[in-house]
Amino acid sequence: MALLIPLIYIIVPGTTRWASYLYPTAYGLVILFLVLFKKTTWEQLGLHHEHWKQNLMLGGLAGGLIIATVPLLDLLIEASGMGRTELFTGAEKRILDRSGNTISLVVYFGTVTGMALAEQLFLTGYLLQALLRATKPSLAIYLGGVIFTLVHFDLQLGLFLLGLTASGLYFLTGSLIAPLIFQIACHTAGWLLTHLYPRAFTLLGFLF
Question: Lowest CB count within 10 Å: 14, 15, 127, 161, which one?
Answer without folding.
Answer: 14
